[in-house]
Amino acid sequence: MSEHLRTALRLAASGIPPLPLRAGKLPFGNCPACARNACGGRPNMKIPGPCTCPQPCHGWAAATTDPHVLNSPAWAPAWRNAAAVAYHPGGAGVTVVDLDNADAIAWARASLPATHVVLTTRGEHWIYQGAMTSHNAVRPGVDIKSSMSYARYLGPGTGTMTALPDTVRALAVKEPPAVRPAPRSVSVPARFGGGQCPHRTPVFLERGIAMAEQCITQARSSIHATVYRTFLAVLSTHGRCGCLTDTHVARLFTAAQARGETARHCLDAWNNASTTLGL
Q1: pTM over 0.85
Q2: What is the spatial order of strands in the sheet that 135-139 belongs to?
Q3: Could you count the other beta carbons within 10 Å of the beta carbon of residue 154?
Q4: Which of 26, 110, 117, 118 could be disulfide-bonded to 125 (CB atoms 3.0-4.6 Å)?
Q5: Residues 92-120: tens digit of each pLDDT
Q6: Can you tell me the distance from the alpha carbon of 176 to that of 170, in angstroms, rounded to the nearest whole number?
Q7: Which DSSP category does 30 fall into?
């Protein structure tokens, strides 16, 4: 049994749902049985439930406290190749305030109540009792990881965990910047006719969406930038044809959210890409 699996079983026994991470602190990719939401549990805007597949896919939704699943043959390759262990904070009923640098830590010490602290490679995780929605970049160097997210397990830490304060919850309540456009309809006006793509075949469109999903899913770093560039590429090819549907866009948003993006960040990236292209 690998050391990572031992750690995962110990976490599961204490009520903390773990999952294996591959190199680059990323979850293992979706298994073929769950491709394109076949299992019904892939996390997206409409289906926030856990994955029902016995294999470790779907990012945070793969986390489980079931030792039979963690020890199952389906998970064995993942644990053999795991580079680290992560956990689903929301599933454990906690919220992680991820502080990425010294300035963020200084802000937390001045602004937040003391709680359980775990050192990270770049900063600190401040862990509070209570779950909330996850949000990235709520302040410079500060992310909130709780529901529908995962955090790397880095040890027991120090200090007594305290209740999630309103100060942290308030970080997630932001008015959209005035310079950002209002949310647009997913489909754009057809320039060449009727929701079809006259200069491309439907097969080309399907292949393009699938490649875009793969690009997002396989990104090893700079997830925000990758999502934006991918949305920009899709819209530059098909944004003026009227061939994109809500289903196509939902697939792209699903792929992004499986990598930790929030629904709001997906919408912002889509709107910003549309504005850049003048759509």
Answers
A1: no
A2: 116-119, 124-129, 94-99, 142-145, 135-139
A3: 15
A4: 118
A5: 999 999 999 999 999 999 999 999 999 99
A6: 14
A7: P
